[in-house]
Amino acid sequence: MIYYDKLIFELSAPGRKGYTLPANRYPVHAAVPGTLRRAEAPALPEVSEPDVVRHYTNLSQMNFGVDTGFYPLGSCTMKYNPKINEEIAAMPSFTGLHPLQPSETVQGALEVYWETEQALRALTGLEAFTFNPCAGAHGELTGLMIIKRYHELRGDTARTKIIVPDSAHGTNPASAAVAGFEVVEVKSLENGRIDVEALKELLGPDVAGIMMTNPNTLGLFETEIKTIAALVHEAGGLLYYDGANMNPLMGVVRPGDMGFDVMHLNLHKTFSTPHGGGGPGSGPVGVAPHLVRCLPLPRVIREADGHFSLLGAEENSAGKVSGFLGNFGVILRALAYIKMLGRQNVRRVGELSTLGANYIKECLKDVYKLPIEGVCKHEFVFDGLVNDGAREGVPGATTLDVAKRLLDYGFHAPTIYFPLLFHQALMIEPTETESKETLDRFIAVMRQIAAEAAEDPDILHNAPHDTPVRRPDETQAARNPILKAL
Amino acid sequence: MSGFPYFPHTEGDISAMLSRIGAASLKDLYADVPEEFLLKGEPDLPDALSEEEVRAWFSRIGAKNQPLKVFVGGGVYDHYTPSVVPYILSRSEFLTAYTPYQCEISQGTLRYIFEYQSMICALTGMGVSNASMYDGPTAAAEAVRMAVASAKKRTRVLVSEGLFPQVLEVVRTYAHYGGITVDTVPVMKGQTCPNCLRGALAEGDVAGVLVPQINRYGIIEDHSGFAEAVHGAGALLIEYCDPSALAVIKTPAEWGADIAVGDGQALGIPMSFGGPYVGFMAVKKDHLRKLPGRIVGETVDRDGKRAYVLTLQAREQHIRRAKATSNICSNQSLMALFATVYLSLLGPEGLREVNRLSADGAAYLHGQLLATGLFEEAFPGKPFLKEFTLVSKIPAATLQKHLAKAGFFGALDLGEGRVSFAVTERRTKEEIDALVACVKEVRL
Predict the structure, then answer these.
(1) ipTM of this model?
(2) Does the domain at residues A84-340 carry the CATH identifier 3.40.640.10?
(3) Is the CB of A18 inside 8 Å of chain B's CB atoms?
(4) Contacts of B87 in chain A (CB under 8 A)
(5) Nearest chain B residue (CA) to A349
(6) Under an 8 A CB cutoff, do A38 and B122 touch?
(7) Is the Cβ pair B271, A19 closer than 8 Å?
(8) Along the 444 residues of chain B, how does pLDDT read in single tens digits?
(9) Which of B7, B66, B105 to mutate to probe the A interface, most A CBs <10 Å?
(10) A20: Cα separation from own chain's centroid
């Protein structure tokens, strides 16, 4: 990667232009009254088309994507993004549709929603899905609104609490708070699973539900899930499934069968759509039969005659959570992926992602601390180096140092310092689309880094050495915020 | 059949990896899952298709959509997309990256977000922008939450009935679950009624007021005195804006707003049946710490080079968990890049020309439709840009259906006999003439 130090504004010169527009042939000219006009033109750049193309190409070359290399970012499922998906999402027969067009004129688009819903039903064991949430966290929020609505409709307004395990993704408690719930944390046991006894003490008439990830954020299957589901349901609560960790279960286990009532999926994780540097994603929410009436609006419905229509009104609905029907372009990509996989290949997604994670874990656990032994699912967590090289006057190498050193070797870093259960967490998720050769190379580099740490931790402290920029001064960024150019 | 193009593993690789793990089979890796939860057989999905078959399937389904010349807005506009924009967005270094957590290998993403924030500030006149929201309606809903969080004990917000219905409904939904009371301010003579606003403010307990700069009737609202009244009541003023129109009309900052939100779709983003678009949110500098979402800041690296990082993260969910300003994490980053590249190409002059062409086209269509005698002005004399509203003598549904048959999407039904039309620079005078000719043929 080559350092390139321009902002687009720095290429600007008055009079340059990067566009063409048709000649104005209208006989009338509209005029905005002076009192409603802005005083000065906005300070946007004036640049030529080649300036723009070269500038953003240069910027892109300071970026690392899945197409660049291995991206073992735990809980993010950075799998390969198939190229056919992009072609499908760019078809003019889909991109040219206005969201308010009469439904007779968008039957194809509505069928895409319906087909995707059928596939997600088959994979999750749930009854119906909404596609309106635009991201995973948006799906969580929507799911919690559905839970709240369900209790409201039953006239049960005393259920103000949501239980969240201490290992949960940070979004879980944040989503619960935005949905107007009080968050109660349930502890994990030494073996990384939910403490069922502690859970029992929390359950009661004030609990609306529990948010779980299974496998959890340590990559461990919650073996007591059947008991947990029974206890929560008995207490009148609902079970929410955070689909961030759905990948190892693809084609193998269905959340609906385990007793979950509501879940979201991350199409930009499990269903291969590109993450785009932080979105657009898509977070469809699935529900069990008793919650279908609470799904947000609008919803795509298939009529008895095979035509599709939009359900726009339903008094029991949780409401409206985004402008229209979510990120349609992302849903198209996910459906293309489902069509490619088909019934024949989907199970391999789960199995191979699980295989890769266990393989890395076993090959590295002598040099990185493995806090909990045993088989994992698609990801696992190390708690720092076995030998961090600490000595008189020289602090040991931390997880941050390991992560930064990985960048020098051409790998993206794992998720670090999460989950919060461990101080030096390194969360590794390889996905099913990485070859054994890639994993072997990663393992060799991780061992090399461990050896460097033991010998001279400063090599790690000073990493990265070979990236376009080195460690930034984050304190200065926060203390004296510069948040825009000019 | 064995082998699949997205899975690199040979059978030999699988055996070698299993043996290193000490497992006999792939099934063994699920030994900790209770037997009753293991799926028996294949899930009920369709058969795997070849790439060519997938392409054919989508072509067939796509052909079931009817392509229409769009003469409607309602918050989504058929603006032109320069070919450079999708070309840049398809670069895999942007497309296939995650959120820029490792800033040393994410300077590309971080820099364009910084440029995006700068451009949103330039358009709105506000001090600080975040890295993007999902869409306009959710940005408005988050702004309302932010106003209530800033006001501490007050939980009531006022929203204009002039907002697009999808904005109002999403705001209402978020508010319902957040314990926020939403009261509406009516539209009188085509604009959010100033006296009604003052009256509602006088009732007290107001944390925020959300009003559209350009309302659902297409009218550019006059918000003179709004900021004074809202601030006088101790509340925050939130303006819902069309970022394209901001090239010419008064900015939210000039109206004295505290928060500006809206949808970036009008910046050449394909309509794509509702998404992906990009919501934006910009605030006065004093409100920085309450701003939801990601923010990129400039700093230097340890060698003194200019570098960009995600900053002020103490507001966010992964640090603050239940106490975060919002639960948003993934937003619409790639669509923020879309807006940034679009605005770079168009510049201030291009954006002004887009508005000029759209507004002149709309004025022309407005005149031609009135001349048919089938319509009357809904709000005589009120200023509009690319979208306007008429009272139709033909029932809206009849008109819309008739136009669709001829390949037009026009006459959005606003109720009470009102229909709206929109024109962008993508429509030609010939298309407008054809639409008007078609309207004249409607049989009542």
Answers:
(1) 0.98
(2) yes
(3) yes
(4) 53
(5) B7
(6) no
(7) no
(8) 468 999 999 999 999 999 999 999 999 999 999 999 999 999 999 999 999 999 999 999 999 999 999 999 999 999 999 999 999 999 999 999 999 999 999 999 999 999 999 999 999 999 999 999 999 999 999 999 999 999 979 999 999 999 999 999 999 999 999 999 999 999 999 999 999 999 999 999 999 999 999 999 999 999 999 999 999 999 999 999 999 999 999 999 999 999 999 999 999 999 999 999 999 999 999 999 999 999 999 999 999 999 999 999 887 777 777 788 889 988 999 999 999 999 999 999 999 999 999 999 999 999 999 999 999 999 999 999 999 999 999 999 999 999 999 999 999 999 999 999 999 999 999 999 999 999 999 976
(9) B105
(10) 38
For residues B427 and B417, give the distance between their C-alpha atoms in angstroms, rounded to a whole number: 25
Q: Which fold has domain B84-340?
A: Aspartate Aminotransferase; domain 2 (3.40.640)
H/E stretch holding A267 = none
Domain positions in chain B: 18-62, 69-79+346-440, 84-340
3-state SS, residue A204:
coil
Alpha carbon separation from B200 to A89, B20, B228 (Å, rounded): 46, 71, 14
Burial of A474 per CB tally in 10 Å (0-12, 13-18, 19+): middle
Is the pTM higher than 0.95? The answer reads yes
Whether residue B276 is preceded by a cis peptide bond, meaning omega within 30 degrees of 0, is yes
Burial tier of A391 (Cβ tally within 10 Å: 0-12, 13-18, 19+): exposed
Nearest-by-Cβ selection for A136 from B76, B299, B330: B330
Which chain B residue has the Cα nearest residue A99?
B273
Indicate the residue type of A109: A
Where do we find the tokens 């890769």? Answer: A356
Nearest to B108 among A59, A122, A346 (CB): A59
Domain B69-79+346-440 CATH superfamily: Aspartate Aminotransferase, domain 1 (3.90.1150.10)
Mean pLDDT within A246-275: 98
Q: Which two tokens stand for residue B407?
A: 């390949």
Instruction: Scan residues 194-213 of A and list those with Cβ closer than 8 Å to B.
Output: none
Superfamily of domain A350-475 in CATH is Aspartate Aminotransferase, domain 1 (3.90.1150.10)
> What residues of B are in contact with residue A467 (Cβ under 8 Å)?
104-105
Average pLDDT over residues A106-125: 98
Six-digit token string for B172:
């209402």
Quote the minimal CA–CA distance from A454 to chain B in Å.
24
Q: Do A99 and B274 touch (CB under 8 A)?
A: yes
CA distances from B319 to A241, A414, B324, B437 (A): 22, 18, 8, 60
Counting beta carbons within 10 angstroms of the beta carbon of residue A406, is it exposed (0 to 12), middle (13 to 18) or buried (19 or more)?
A: buried
Chain B: give the shortest CA distance to residue A390, in Å. 23
Q: Which of B27, B51, B96, B301 is best to mutate for the A interface (most A CBs within 10 A)?
A: B96
Q: Which of B71, B170, B222, B273 to mutate against chain A (most A CBs within 10 Å)?
A: B273
Peptide bond before residue A45 is cis, with ω within 30 degrees of 0: no
Residue from the list A65, A66, A138 with its beta carbon closest to the beta carbon of B134: A138
CA angle A348, A350, A356 (to 5 degrees): 90
C-alpha torsion sign, points B101, B102, B108, B111: positive
Give the C-alpha separation, B155 to B151, whole Å. Answer: 8
Alpha carbon distance A301, A297 (integer Å): 11
CB A349 within 8 A of CB A366: no
CA nearest B71 in A: which residue? Answer: A98
Residues of B in contact with A351 (CB under 8 A): 26, 29
User: Mean pLDDT throughout A370-380?
Assistant: 97
